[in-house]
Specification:
Elements (H helix, E strand, L loop, with lengths): L1 H12 L4 H23 L15 H6 L7 H18 L7
Helix pairs in contact: 1-2, 2-4
InterPro entries: Tet_transcr_reg_TetR-rel_C_sf
Length: 93
């Protein structure tokens, strides 16, 4: 809890109320835990084909291979941080 308190103090100094700061902490923590969980789940073996014909948009999105887990995490974290920045209280930037 001390680490969370420290983060909340830092966020308060940046102008975020404690409740909003806690939501931010939860969001980033859950993103990280979710990524670790997804990576730990068994995935289809190499060469295992999946019929994507009923899902043309998914098939198009996966052309050239799946999206790297690190890239997915970076994308999601950037989206979160961008949203946090936009929700920041007005202050001199």
């Amino acid at each position: 809890m001390a680490a969370v308190e420290t983060v909340l103090a830092t966020l308060r100094e940046a102008g975020f109320p404690p409740r909003q700061g806690l939501r931010m902490v939860y969001s980033i923590t859950e993103l990280a835990i979710g990524q670790v969980t997804v990576r730990s789940v068994d995935t289809p073996k190499e060469g295992g084909e999946v019929d994507l014909s009923p899902y043309p948009l998914l098939a198009e999105a996966l052309q050239g291979g799946g999206i790297d887990p690190g890239e997915r995490f970076d994308f999601a974290l950037t989206a979160l941080l961008t949203g946090f920045e936009r929700s920041a209280p007005d202050r001199d930037r």
